[in-house]
Amino acid sequence: MSRAFVTGGCGFVGRHLLRRLFTLEADVWCIDNLSTGLHPDQWLTEATGREELPGGLIRYTLPTSSLTFIAGDALAFFLGQLAIIPRGDAPLLPAFDRVFHLASVVGGRKKIDGDPMEVAIDLGIDSIFFLWATRNRASIKKILYASSSAAYPVHLQSTDGHVALEENAIDFPNGKIGMPDMTYGWSKLTGEYLSFVAAKHYGMSVACVRPFSGYGEDQDLTYPVPAIAYRAARGDSPITVWGTGEQGRDFVHIEDCITALILAIDRISDGRGVNIGTGKLTNFKELASLFVSIAGYDAEVKPQIGMPVGVASRYSNPSEMETLLGWKPEISIEEGMSRVLAGARARLAAGVTLED
User: Fold this and answer.
1) Closest by alpha carbon to 202, among 255, 133, 294?
2) How far out from the chain centre does Cα 15 lie?
3) SS3 state of residue 232
4) Going by C-beta distance under 8 Å and a sequence separation of 6 or more, which residues neighbour residue 112?
5) Whole-structure pTM over 0.85, yes or no?
6) Which segments in the chain show pLDDT lower than 70?
7) Residue 87: exposed, middle, or buried by beta-carbon count in 10 A (0-12, 13-18, 19+)?
8) pLDDT per residue over 119-140, tens digit each?
């Protein structure tokens, strides 16, 4: 029986990954503390059965798979698994063919800039995860570590000196790294180093992915893409963007991100990182104009100076991704943003509000 484990499985990325794994794996496990994620009871509508098990586990039966859900904090959970903090009720984990490590404190720019010490706990989550993984390597065939484009040196992402970011800008064997983006970037850079160590020193099969700006219809409104879409769905005129709106990103739809995750864990084993991006730089003024156009009205794009914005330009060189994975993103920005706008209209109709 094939089996996968996903940490942070109930967040935005995790939910999309789980749904894809339900079509690929006979048995799926996940852990999430639900700080930003949604309980499976809220979104797993295709479940045909639900059973509460000892140790606080919930097992859902699906048409072609099953989900075993652990409600808990990943850091505390793996400390318990390692008996560093003994827990008598800690569930006994089975062997896994694939482990996807997504668990982290995440949020939009307001979280990354506004509370960097809370985000820094990701350093602890990743170190304990990899300690657990190396101690149980006989029971784990493959690991996928979800890094981020925030791990790249910020000096390559400035207004005047930006470049299409290439994987070799982070080169652990040759001691080549730079200053990443805030504590979030440091945690992801460190997680990649732990991936490298797990592969080189412990013989584990590990892959890292560096997603650029992933987005989707059900992403939290604290992120810029769904927030701007909501304003367009509301018919705002002018429509606002944080900062000058000149800051640019490489936008990738979540379903394309999930495809890349699956390909990476099966095609990369030496701990290296690979981009997930389109190579296209789009600034937030252009993004807002696109949403207004799709929504069918005209509006000025108005900057909100003084709001957190991050680096000036962050976009990928997708060449190595296309070579290593034999793939490139399939959902165009026009199609993807149309889906997000439809999702924003549904939220608006449901009475969901946006904190501008």
Assistant:
1) 133
2) 10
3) helix
4) 119, 150, 181, 182, 183, 184, 308, 310
5) yes
6) 85-90
7) middle
8) 999 999 999 999 999 999 999 9
